[in-house]
Design a protein that fits this description.
single chain; 240 residues; alpha+beta; 8-stranded antiparallel β-barrel; two-stranded antiparallel ribbon
Length: 240
């Protein structure tokens, strides 16, 4: 009888230990989940491919072919509400942007850079483009439907991007002349504009609207400043 009593006591102790272990594990799990929810953020690498448009072009200038942009970088996500679906993002990245266009010739004359409008049929132009390479700092206000465990969600990120010009080049090829220039001073060193990215999961629509001209005030065509600005439309991919 006494042996049975001790046996039952051992069983109770064993069950109690199992229960306490389970409760401890559950509490740790809940704490971990809570911490996960408390601390999660959308730190993200980004990559974007855009079609580059020229806005406010001089009267006789038009675009031709596909003008492409490639953008890569990292944005630090800083949530500002308890649910962590509203945040501020600040990052750094690089981009290359080409602009294929017609009739605007950029050349060096008398040790100065000159801009002129040409008759393309007379020159039989095969290539006419300029390219910029920038280091960029994007700033975003971010809203999304994400949670700590849901990686597929809707997002709307809007903000501002400022870029510093590292390098530029121009290429002009025709039957009458070939002109290739690099790192000329006529491009604005700082280029900035508004941004918007919106979509679901990895695939997002992206647009950049330039606020200042690509060329500086010393760049003139028919004695007028060249006010061309950049507009970029494409896809943005976010990678955790």
């Amino acid at each position: 009888m006494k042996n049975n009593k001790y046996k039952h006591m051992k069983d109770y102790v064993f069950l109690l230990l199992v229960l306490l272990s389970f409760l401890g594990f559950s509490q740790d799990y809940i704490t971990d989940k809570s911490e996960l929810f408390k601390n999660y953020r959308e730190d993200q690498f980004y990559a974007s491919v855009t079609y580059n448009l020229l806005n406010e072009k001089p009267k006789d200038v038009s675009q031709s072919g596909f003008s492409s942009g490639f953008h890569f970088g990292f944005i630090r996500d800083m949530p500002i509400n308890e649910r962590r679906n509203f945040a501020i993002g600040l990052g750094i990245g690089i981009s290359s942007n080409s602009y294929n266009q017609k009739k605007l010739l950029i050349e060096e004359a008398n040790n100065e850079i000159a801009f002129s409008i040409i008759d393309e049929s007379e020159y039989n132009v095969t290539k006419n483009k300029f390219t910029t390479y920038l280091v960029e700092v994007p700033f975003e206000i971010r809203w999304r439907t994400s949670t700590a465990s849901d990686y597929n969600f809707w997002r709307i990120y809007t903000g501002f991007k400022i870029g510093y010009l590292l390098y530029n080049s121009t290429k002009f090829k025709s039957e009458l002349a070939n002109v290739k220039l690099s790192n000329i001073d006529n491009f604005n060193k700082l280029q900035y504009g508004l941004t918007l990215s919106a979509g679901y999961s990895t695939w997002n629509f992206h647009v950049y609207y330039g606020l200042n001209p690509i060329f500086d005030n010393n760049s003139r065509l028919s004695n007028k400043t060249i006010e061309m600005k950049s507009v970029k439309i494409g896809l943005m991919f976010y990678i955790l």
